Amino acid sequence: MYGKCVAVGLYESNVAIICLQWDLVCDRAYLKDLTQTIFIVGIMFASLICTVLADKFGRKPIFLFSHWAMVVVGVANAFAPNYYVFTVLRFFSGMLTQVRTATSQFLSVFMLINN
Predict the structure, then answer these.
(1) DSSP 3-state assignment of 5?
(2) Local structure of residue 19 (DSSP, 8 states)
(3) Which of 8, 62, 78, 110 sits a CA distance of 20 to 30 A from 51?
(4) SS3 string of 44-106?
(5) Range among 18-22, 24-28, 56-60 rated most confident
(6) How many beta carbons lie within 10 A of that of residue 12, not counting itself?
(7) What does pTM read for this prediction?
């Protein structure tokens, strides 16, 4: 159940640590790094589709949508019941981060040019 770390005594603590609750230690420790990698893949995927969406629907609606969606995904991520839901939500967090960043940079440049 707890892998090879029972002898080390990691699970004897009363502290609620997410790595221990989801058993992300020892032979499953790579899953912590995988979550960050999936976040970066979300950023990469969004960078491919962000400009297409912004051109089709407009930059401001995409910008506002990404902010509101980031709030929803961020709150859902805080209450993720298991590792897999957390990782999927981190992918969407990465996507929304890239969409928000790209559209805000475009909007800032356009506002500077127009003034």
Answers:
(1) coil
(2) H
(3) 78
(4) HHHHHHHHHHHHHHCHHHHHHHHHHHHHHHHHHHHCCCCHHHHHHHHHHHHHHHHHHHHHHHH
(5) 56-60
(6) 7
(7) 0.76
